[in-house]
Amino acid sequence: DSGVTQTPKHLITATGQRVTLRCSPRSGDLSVYWYQQSLDQGLQFLIQYYNGEERAKGNILERFSAQQFPDLHSELNLSSLELGDSALYFCASSGGDISSTDTQYFGPGTRLTVL
Amino acid sequence: AQSVTQLGSHVSVSEGALVLLRCNYSSSVPPYLFWYVQYPNQGLQLLLKYTSAATLVKGINGFEAEFKKSETSFHLTKPSAHMSDAAEYFCAVRHTGGFKTIFGAGTRLFVKA
Description:
Largest sheet of chain B: 6 strands, mixed
Radius of gyration of chain B: 13 Å
Radius of gyration of chain A: 13 Å
Number of helices of chain B: 0
Shape of chain B: globular
Largest sheet of chain A: 7 strands, mixed
Helix content of chain B: under 10%
Oligomer: heterodimer
Mean pLDDT of chain B: 91
Order of helices and strands of chain B: EEEEEEEEEEE
Mean pLDDT of chain A: 92
Largest interface: A-B, 24 and 23 residues
Distance between the termini of chain A: 31 Å
């Protein structure tokens, strides 16, 4: 158990819908990262927050957004869903900021299926 | 730009045999390098990381990796495979002062009895 929790574990929805994925980092970790893992794209970095502020952006679509709240939990919002958005979405947390080499601890993931 | 290439999407070894998973990176500045393991239906777990200290890095579960700048490689090895090593392994690179971690496509390790 990494100490990172993600809810829900599974999510099935239809095209055009909007969903919210939630992540609680390990106690004391200030950075939260979101990743998308799919068969065709592999593991892709989406976005990072540090202590409530966006710090780094990867291959995140404009239909996707995220935020980190004062209690440090984070939410990833996916809207206007398409079939290609079906994937595993991982959250990871670490203690430090983007220049740190702190270990990223991954949550168990949320499997999103778009029908 | 950074990139990571993992040679071989699938590797099969016999129990007790040497495990060698290959990773080559591309980075214009000194990199940080990582190996992660993913067991079925689980998130990624860090095996080891290179952060510009010793070039031979020892990790968990008997794995180690050697940073070779001249070859731009960071191959993962384990002297003797165990059935429990069967999983997917990801090499990743992040450059010092960089903004994001780039993951390789992954190598699935099969261990035969």
